[in-house]
Amino acid sequence: MRGRILLVDDETLLVVTLGRALSASGFEVDTAGTGEEALASLDRQEYDVIVTDLRMEGEDGFAVLREARSRDPQVCVVVITGYSNEEAGLEALRQGADDYLFKPFQPEELVLRVTRQAEKRELRRKVRRYESLLGVCPRCGRFRWVPGPEGGRWTAFSEPVGLAPAERIRPTLCPGCEHA
Question: What is the DSSP code string of the chain?
Answer without folding.
Answer: ---EEEEE-S-HHHHHHHHHHHHHTT-EEEEESSHHHHHHHHHH---SEEEEES--SSS-HHHHHHHHHHH-TT-EEEEEES---HHHHHHHHHTT-SEEEESS--HHHHHHHHHHHHHHHHHHHHHHHHHHHHTB-TTT--EE-BSSGGG--EE-TTS-----TT-B------HHHHT-
